[in-house]
UniProtKB/TrEMBL annotation:
<comment type="pathway">
    <text>Secondary metabolite biosynthesis.</text>
</comment>
<protein>
    <submittedName>
        <fullName>Uncharacterized protein</fullName>
    </submittedName>
</protein>
<dbReference type="InterPro" id="IPR051654">
    <property type="entry name" value="Meroterpenoid_MTases"/>
</dbReference>
<comment type="similarity">
    <text>Belongs to the class I-like SAM-binding methyltransferase superfamily.</text>
</comment>
<dbReference type="InterPro" id="IPR029063">
    <property type="entry name" value="SAM-dependent_MTases_sf"/>
</dbReference>
<keyword id="KW-0808">Transferase</keyword>
<dbReference type="GO" id="GO:0016740">
    <property type="term" value="F:transferase activity"/>
</dbReference>
<keyword id="KW-0949">S-adenosyl-L-methionine</keyword>
Length: 282
């Protein structure tokens, strides 16, 4: 699996380590000022410090290039409807898979969803711990953060088996599947499928492509597969056949946030943002 938390490729990792910021986007500023109560002049320094610590722990492009400051769930076309579901259905569960610092989960809390029905999951406990430092909510947030490997599934026992039993109604899964080659995405997706209640959805954003293919992954020598909507749909058809479930995939490709210019670009001219909704129909 394409882990990056080794120090053997530091030169390569520096490609996606941007200089410290001198401003942040208005959405994350709003979240940090209104949810975390960080005062206006301290927001940027605070974010720079968290980025430095996070990258030292795990040198993902999404950390080095500050993509974790983009509240991707907010940009999803279903955001308002997801928000309404989570607020009005007192048993609805949201799971943020590969949540890293958990920024989208905090936005839902700011927007009125009870934090006890929001769960974060990541293989890297230290990144989720850093989320508490970023949002200053260790003592107030009631969400559970689960350290688990999506590839290990039930072999991990609790808390994974508890998640499967309870099931989730909305899974947010951003910048996650695109980390892996197609065969591993299939294994991961079969695992994710077990976590979704009937009628539930998986939503997210990831690197897609107008020419779907394996491309060099963030760990040197490995690949990851970039989808268009058709290949993503094909993957979930396969997942349905393998797991006795049925899925409908909708999505779109656009150029929002695509970093394919300049010598340090981690994406290429075929790269696009893929926004997707995968609904469990049966
Ligand atoms: C590229 S980051 C995206 C973080 C966040 N979703 C976002 O959009 O900002 C991918 C996250 O997936 C986690 N991850 C990688 N492999 C995983 C696995 N096998 N099981 C669970 N989480 C994993 C990483 O630790 C990391 O936090």
């Amino acid at each position: 699996m394409a882990a990056t938390n080794d120090d053997r490729n530091t030169e390569r990792h520096q490609k996606w380590y941007e200089p410290d910021l001198d401003e942040v986007n208005p959405q994350i500023r709003h979240l940090l000022e209104n949810y975390s109560k960080i005062s206006q002049p301290h927001v940027v320094n605070h974010v720079n410090e968290i980025r430095t610590k996070g990258f030292a722990s795990n040198p993902y492009p999404c950390i080095g290039s500050y993509r974790f400051l983009n509240l991707t769930l907010l940009t999803h076309p279903l955001y308002q409807s997801i928000l309404e579901t989570l607020k009005s259905n007192s048993s609805a569960i949201y799971l943020d898979l590969g949540c890293c610092f958990g920024q989208d989960l905090r936005q839902l809390v700011l927007d009125g969803v009870p934090s006890s029905r929001l769960i974060g999951l990541d293989i890297e406990g230290p990144l989720m711990d850093l989320g508490y430092d970023m949002f200053l909510d260790k003592d107030t947030l009631e969400s559970k953060f689960v350290v688990a490997d999506i590839f290990k599934g039930e072999l991990q026992g609790e808390p994974w088996t508890g998640l499967v039993e309870r099931g989730a109604d909305v899974i947010h899964c951003s910048a996650f599947f695109h980390l892996f080659p197609l065969e591993e995405q299939f294994e991961a997706a079969k695992s994710v499928a077990k976590l979704v209640n009937k009628g539930g959805i998986i939503v997210g954003r990831q690197s897609g492509s107008v020419k779907p293919a394996e491309v060099p992954a963030i760990k040197a020598g490995t690949t990851s597969f970039r989808h268009d909507v058709n290949t993503l749909s094909g993957l979930w058809d396969k997942v349905g056949t393998a797991t006795g479930t049925k899925w409908k995939v909708e999505g779109s490709l656009d150029e929002v946030g695509v970093q394919n210019k300049g010598k340090n670009a981690v994406e290429d001219e075929n790269s696009r943002r893929l926004l997707f909704t995968i609904k469990r129909e049966d």
